[in-house]
Amino acid sequence: MAYSDSDSRSSGPSGRNTDSGTQRLETFSDGVFAIAITLLIIEIGVPHIGRGEDLADELAGLWASYGAYVLSFVMIGIYWANHHSLFKLYLRTDHIFLMLNVFFLMAVAFLPFPTAVLGEYLEDSAERQTAVTFYVLGLLLPAVGWLTIWLYGIWRDLLDNRLVPDYVRFLTIQYGLSISTYAFALALSFLSPVASLVIVVSLTLLYLLPPRKPRYLT
């Protein structure tokens, strides 16, 4: 059989465009992504200075909050972009699939909270470990939701049946490795919070690379 590379939304065996199965889901998801990514900046409070204090120093002192904001903003942005690409591969959905997507979006919408906690307590040596552990857990949850959606789609045969099996296996392994990496970072955070953050930042930078284009049987 011949193979073709395509990143455009394809028609199913009946010739129907996949928008008929996922358009409303994607529209709702885009709204949740937009709200979650907006909440990140709201969580950074305006510093209140007293007599003799310098506003510039107070603003500079929020560096941990800025860093956490950027990391989480990029992470949610990656999920949004990949969510758009991933749902091109589905021909249809069902009720459980929709509920799994709701769980995934709930995990994404939760991320601004551990982001704020990390920004607040990263410089606190006594609470740094707890803050980092909580933040890495916040990154692990949407990864679990993402893989669950993917595996359910395979199990229920919701994917475009023209996708090359090797491509489906590649994504399954990739998503599984992501969860393994986050889980390792979560365990490591109890021993070395800094090393744990290095791992999740590196994984985020890795996902900035363009995703592999889907391959179809023709």
Short description:
By secondary structure, the chain is mostly helical.
Main features:
mainly alpha
Largest sheet at a glance? 2 strands, antiparallel
Overall 3D geometry?
elongated
Strand arrangement, largest sheet?
1-2
Task: Report helical residue fraction.
Answer: 55-70%
Spatial extent as radius of gyration: 20 Å
Any overview of this molecule?
It is elongated and about 70 Å long. Helices cover 67% and strands 3% of the residues. The chain has helices at residues 19-42, 55-60, 63-86, 95-110, 112-121, 128-155, 165-188, 193-206; strands at residues 3-5, 215-217. The termini are close together.
Topology of this structure?
Blueprint: E1 3-5, H1 19-42, H2 55-60, H3 63-86, H4 95-110, H5 112-121, H6 128-155, H7 165-188, H8 193-206, E2 215-217
